[in-house]
Amino acid sequence: MSVIDHARRVLERLVAASATERILISSAALLLSILLGALLVLIAGRMTTCTVGDAVYYFGTGFCYNPVLVFDRLFLGALGDPFSGAWSPEGQFSVTLRETTLLIFTGLSVALAFQAGIFNIGTQGQMVVGGLATAVLVLQASSVVSGVIGSVLLIPFGVVVGVVSGGLYGSIPGILKAYSDANEVITTIMLNFIATGVTLYLVSGVFKDPESPANRTVPLPEYAQFPTVIFGGRQDFSLVALACGLLAIGGLYYLLEYTAFGYDIQTSGLQPGAAEYGGVDAKRTIVASLTLSGALGGVAGSMYVMMVLGTFQSGLPAYGFDGITVSILAGNNPAGVAFTALLFGVLKSGTTVVQFATDVPPQLVGVLRGLIILFVAMPEFFRLVGQRVVDPGSKPVATDDGNLEATDE
Amino acid sequence: MSDSSSETTGVNPGVDPEPDKEATREKGPLAPQSSRGLTAWAAIGLIAALLLGGTAFPDTILGILADIITDKDTFAAALRLSVPIAFAALGGIFSERAGVINIGLEGLLIISAFTAIYVTDITGEIWVGFSGGVVASVLLALLFAVVTIEFRADQIIAGLAVWLIALGLAPFASQVIYNSPNTPTVGTTRSISVPVLAEIPFFGALFSASPSVYMLLIAVVASWYVFERTAFGRWVRASGENPKALDTAGVNVNRVRYAGVLISGVLAGMGGSALSLDLGQFTGNGATMVNGKGFIAIVAYLFGNYNPIGAFLATMLFAGLDAIQTVFQLQGIGLPQQLIRVIPFVMVIVILAFVGRTRLPESAGEHYESGEK
């Protein structure tokens, strides 16, 4: 057990030493991305045309897009304008919480796999599979029960369907990695394309709603969808779903910190050699963590179907890819996911406000997402900058053990 | 299991496991080679059986399939479809052999596909637009190189960021400039036909194709030549396999890695420009018109064992399948389009399941820190 004890100490030291640093790096990455995003808005504002009256002027030059307005709308607009005096949770704030709820699940999905040292890019596909399975099976079941009892039975049933289908789909790359050593980054990306293609086929064929021109399933009855509690009904938000998300955060935190299985996952992620030497079944851990990760992605799909759309329609938003950003920004820590999911909920919900208030294309948030990932991936950059600021005369290369371990994950 | 874990996670980043190196090198390429060979032979056998069956029973589905496979147009379509994938795969080989895993090839294809159309649109010159696409791809590759080599970013995550940035930036720019994620159409490159040779049955497709196909064929041979016959090729390989030895020999490892990543930018840029200029339009909805070609390229060079010619043949296999499905659709043969579209992706997974572990260059994915600083 001494190897395991050693690994545990390494883990604790790493977590303690890097928690503050992680928060600092994540905040710096976010700030830098927003600054670059503002620059991009300015440049884009020079490339398009508008009337003189619509232009804003900085440094004596006219720009068609105003970055201050963009980010004001993006953040304050997403929160429902808390300083306007007429704030109500019913408006855009509910949309933000709705997006946050979905991102909690996709973020946790990516984070769990990362904790085991596995890069699950397939959350998107697992969510798509979970969503379609939920839409189809809950619809079938909804003819059996109805009313309040229907809600009490059907909603948990739908979540279970998401767990099982997403989990099964997630186990495919897990099995491929464990038993054929196939790189999970490639298999999960391929499985995303497969999920999108196959669900499109199914939803435009056998499962298609005959009364709709869109490729979607027959809508679920009202009682088979998440109920509105207190507020949010108009924006397809349910506090029940958000509560499920917070429970999932707590559950995953408990699993990772206090259970033997969670411990296996973390040691496999940090020191695979030591974990196996200490008696962890590496193959089983890989399959189990990817299955569980897929299950969380599947739940995101169920939530999307049972809370937001009420049906499955081809072309789901990219919550799965946003989950990667949410997780990486949170340092793959479940508790951190709560904050970064809210942040990305704001970004996603704010996008529509920006679209409403300005002419800036909504793809801007996609660019921000990429930039944030890029900057979080390069902690060394911020360390160098930090060192230069603290001690301008020092040698600008840091190579102590802690740094190596932190960057090598 | 323990040998693979030390490679993928770098348990002892400072210690070089010299004694083991020879052993892993000997069994490394051989183990996957046999199953890779098996898959290749299985594919060849399958095609041969199909052709035989086709000639024996010309009026059955086998006969139709055999007709399609031996058709010159199918071959021409396969060549055309393989252009972006094979270019990106060649780029991936340069980068990964130098020690930098470039998972952002998809992003390089997207950014160059858009820029090529944009520059063609404003200058009116197709080849200026083509170069514009290449420049955009090289700039993005340069960003990736700086981030991974200078700032020691995790190569996989940074590569993912490159993909996501391009995935957002290209439709964003298109929306700003053209008010739609899809660009208007511009002129396309004309195909060049070699007299007489173009008339040869089947292989005539090689002599009546768009310029990008010829460029690809030249690039494949040139890449092979660089790796097998030049000092630079040896440096690139050493930079990925044993950077310490390269350093000792007096070659700057990081400079070689920069070169590898930038060459991948040039090649992927040519692929992306060729892709959009072939159609004369960039479409930026959803996964954009690139739609996973960069990822298929990664699988193609893994399957081709980092050999430019192997990667090209693997690409032709995927592209050939795509070409066959297009013919199927034109002839109205059953099988829904959405399902046929996913066949290449399913094939990638099946191949990975059989070929399994692909032997990465020894030091790919690891940052190299020169001893003298």
From TrEMBL, chain A:
Topological category with respect to the lipid bilayer: Multi-pass membrane protein
GO cellular component, one term: plasma membrane
InterPro entries, sorted: ABC_transp_permease
Keywords for this protein: Cell membrane, Membrane, Transmembrane, Transmembrane helix
Compartment(s) where it occurs, according to its Swiss-Prot or TrEMBL record: Cell membrane
Transmembrane segments: 23-44, 56-80, 100-120, 132-165, 185-207, 237-256, 286-312, 324-347, 367-385
Pfam families with a match to the protein in the record: BPD_transp_2
GO terms, molecular function: transmembrane transporter activity
Predominant location category: membrane
Superkingdom field: Archaea
PANTHER family per the UniProt record, alphabetical: ABC TRANSPORTER, PERMEASE PROTEIN (PTHR47089), GUANOSINE ABC TRANSPORTER PERMEASE PROTEIN NUPP (PTHR47089:SF1)
Protein name: ABC-type transport system permease protein (Probable substrate sugar)
Lineage: Archaea, Methanobacteriati, Methanobacteriota, Stenosarchaea group, Halobacteria
Automatic annotation (TrEMBL), chain B:
Gene Ontology terms, MF aspect: transmembrane transporter activity
Main location: membrane
Bilayer-spanning residue ranges: 38-57, 77-94, 101-120, 126-149, 156-178, 200-227, 256-275, 295-318, 339-356
Record InterPro entries: ABC_transp_permease (IPR001851)
Membrane topology, record value: Multi-pass membrane protein
One Gene Ontology CC term in the entry: plasma membrane
Compositional bias per record (Basic and acidic residues), positions renumbered to this chain: 18-28
Keywords: Cell membrane, Membrane, Transmembrane, Transmembrane helix
Listed Pfam families: BPD_transp_2
Subcellular location: Cell membrane
Region annotated Disordered, chain positions: 1-33
Name of the protein this chain belongs to: ABC-type transport system permease protein (Probable substrate sugar)
